């Protein structure tokens, strides 16, 4: 998808767009010194704001995040059918279904029995929804649940995004038992509250009870429901809690280890009442989704029912172009251009309230949080941006950046930044920084072959990038390709002779070849550029000793001890 030009400029890191003559910002510590025993947390330069005013927008190739993206080399992990490995074994069994013949000595646990009973209770109420155009092409897919006895289905409005609303011809409903029918119209489709009430042609149904006014202040257990035509009903354990961050804006954080459900999936309490509806599904293996409480839905159901409208009357705005042309958006962008970040963030918070399904608003709000050093806030926003537009590699890049900033605070490491970087380079194969950060992450994970492949791409895209050649030398050395390592480190030093870590690694390579004269020269260059490098002083002392230079070796050891003592103080 071709992204709006102004956002591409806004979010690109500064050192990727700088001229070669411009000074280069400090690179990630894990890239500069991956062989240090205790590498510093990974970070990178701040994203740069564009100098020129204005922001031309091209939406001719807009791809709605709910589309199935047929014909792609690799489908993103969207809902049910597209990524079956996300789904746990079918559980619970549908009503009337025989239990599997297993070991009679291993009966179901009380927890499994409780889960099975809950599944039997709700199986008839949860449905899979499919949206089609007049040519029979599927536009989107999601989940809903009956909330009245006369066939009203509750789902999330993201299933009927304005970008595809004008193409919708009909919708089909598939029950957990495989029965099918159509939607005859809708009563409400609100993009702000997320509430969509559809009328099913099935005039009799088994409704689920709503649980409005649920207290989400503390994290509470719940179940996420999804329906797969291939695997039946899926009932997964999860945790749900109100997002108390400034950028939370009424959304609930939904986490789990099994199926993430789909847009419109009901979030059930332990007794089977609907507490919330999934509104944004982050397409990651390590999933975290966003839901909205069912309070607005309960309010709509208590009101006098609005007239039934045909699907042709679904809201067809605001589209991407309308959001970008909104004077409030123009003002917020201009404020961010001027680097008045706190003021811009206040404006963008209001915009995301107005346009909660705009990936662009969430991405800019996340960028503002990044500038203010609020890594959790930035991560929250970028997750929403990729959930709304998973084909935008720029947003995956920003998500990875935000995740690495969060991990820099000492939080447990996860696979989210690696997944985000992998998707970033798939969507934007010319993103040098994403390839470099992915290579660095693969090095830390011990995936040296994958790291080498990523570095080949970096050096192809940016052959004058000294840091990439340095990391490539390190990877080649770990792979015992010492000739390749020597060629890469020589290229790194040719591009940047003031790079202390490259001189240090050069010394290690010459040391291994027993070329002690060149090794000593490399270590001397290291300590000249970085006098507090303890490893270089120690290695220089050993090299002098191997050369029979006892006096020089003694002086280097003393320097090594001084550096260690200063570090302890």
Automatic annotation (TrEMBL):
<dbReference type="Pfam" id="PF13365">
    <property type="entry name" value="Trypsin_2"/>
</dbReference>
<dbReference type="InterPro" id="IPR011990">
    <property type="entry name" value="TPR-like_helical_dom_sf"/>
</dbReference>
<feature type="repeat" description="TPR">
    <location>
        <begin position="359"/>
        <end position="392"/>
    </location>
</feature>
<dbReference type="InterPro" id="IPR009003">
    <property type="entry name" value="Peptidase_S1_PA"/>
</dbReference>
<keyword id="KW-0802">TPR repeat</keyword>
<dbReference type="InterPro" id="IPR051685">
    <property type="entry name" value="Ycf3/AcsC/BcsC/TPR_MFPF"/>
</dbReference>
<feature type="region of interest" description="Disordered">
    <location>
        <begin position="26"/>
        <end position="55"/>
    </location>
</feature>
<dbReference type="Pfam" id="PF13432">
    <property type="entry name" value="TPR_16"/>
</dbReference>
<keyword id="KW-0732">Signal</keyword>
<feature type="signal peptide">
    <location>
        <begin position="1"/>
        <end position="18"/>
    </location>
</feature>
<keyword id="KW-0677">Repeat</keyword>
<feature type="repeat" description="TPR">
    <location>
        <begin position="500"/>
        <end position="533"/>
    </location>
</feature>
<dbReference type="InterPro" id="IPR019734">
    <property type="entry name" value="TPR_rpt"/>
</dbReference>
<protein>
    <submittedName>
        <fullName>Tetratricopeptide (TPR) repeat</fullName>
    </submittedName>
</protein>
């Amino acid at each position: 998808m071709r992204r709006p030009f102004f956002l591409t400029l806004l979010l690109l890191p500064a050192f990727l767009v700088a001229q070669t003559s411009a000074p280069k910002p400090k690179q990630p510590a894990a890239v500069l010194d991956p062989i240090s025993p205790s590498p510093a947390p990974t970070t990178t330069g701040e994203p740069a704001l564009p100098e020129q005013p204005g922001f031309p927008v091209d939406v001719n190739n807009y791809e709605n995040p709910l589309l199935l993206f047929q014909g792609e080399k690799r489908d993103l992990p969207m809902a049910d059918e597209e990524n079956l490995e996300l789904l746990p074994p079918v559980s619970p069994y549908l009503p009337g279904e025989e239990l599997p013949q297993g070991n009679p000595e291993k009966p179901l646990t009380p927890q499994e029995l409780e889960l099975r009973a809950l599944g039997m209770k709700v199986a008839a109420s949860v449905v899979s929804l499919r949206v089609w155009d007049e040519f029979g092409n599927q536009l989107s897919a999601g989940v809903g649940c009956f909330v009245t006895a006369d066939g009203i289905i509750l789902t999330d409005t993201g299933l009927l995004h304005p970008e595809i609303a004008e193409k919708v011809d009909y919708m089909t409903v598939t029950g957990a038992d495989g029965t099918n029918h159509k939607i005859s119209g809708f009563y409400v489709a609100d993009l702000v509250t997320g509430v969509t009430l559809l009328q099913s042609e099935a005039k009799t149904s088994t409704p689920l009870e709503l649980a409005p006014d649920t207290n989400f202040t503390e994290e509470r257990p719940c179940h996420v429901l999804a329906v797969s035509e291939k695997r039946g009903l899926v009932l997964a354990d999860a945790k749900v809690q109100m997002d108390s961050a400034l950028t939370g804006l009424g959304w609930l954080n939904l986490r789990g280890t099994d199926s993430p459900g789909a847009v419109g999936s009901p979030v059930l309490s332990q007794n089977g009442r609907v507490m919330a509806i999934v509104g944004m599904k982050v397409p990651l293996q390590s999933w975290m989704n966003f839901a909205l409480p069912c309070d607005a839905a309960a309010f709509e159901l208590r009101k006098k029912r609005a007239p039934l409208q045909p699907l042709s009357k679904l809201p067809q705005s605001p589209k991407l172009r309308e959001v970008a042309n909104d004077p409030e958006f123009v003002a917020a962008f201009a404020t961010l251009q001027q680097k008045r970040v706190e003021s811009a963030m206040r404006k963008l918070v209001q915009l995301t309230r107005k346009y909660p399904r705009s990936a662009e608003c969430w991405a800019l709000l996340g960028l503002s949080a990044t500038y203010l050093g609020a890594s959790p806030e930035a991560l929250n926003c970028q997750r929403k941006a990729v959930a709304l537009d998973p084909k935008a590699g720029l947003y995956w890049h920003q998500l990875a950046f935000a995740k690495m900033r969060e991990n820099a605070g000492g939080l447990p490491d996860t696979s989210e930044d690696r997944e985000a970087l992998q998707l970033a380079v798939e969507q934007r194969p010319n993103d040098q920084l994403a390839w470099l950060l992915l290579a660095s992450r693969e090095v830390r994970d011990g995936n040296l072959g994958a790291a080498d492949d990523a570095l080949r791409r970096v050096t192809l895209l940016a052959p004058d990038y000294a840091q990439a050649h340095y990391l490539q030398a390190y990877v080649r050395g770990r792979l015992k390709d010492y000739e390749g390592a020597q060629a890469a480190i020589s290229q790194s030093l040719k591009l940047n002779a003031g790079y202390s870590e490259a001189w240090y690694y050069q010394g290690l390579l010459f040391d291994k070849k027993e070329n002690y004269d060149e090794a000593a020269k490399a270590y001397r260059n290291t300590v000249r550029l970085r006098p507090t490098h303890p490893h270089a002083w120690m290695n220089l002392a050993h090299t002098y000793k191997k050369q029979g230079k006892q006096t020089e070796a003694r002086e280097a050891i003393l320097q090594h001890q001084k550096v260690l003592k200063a570090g302890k103080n």
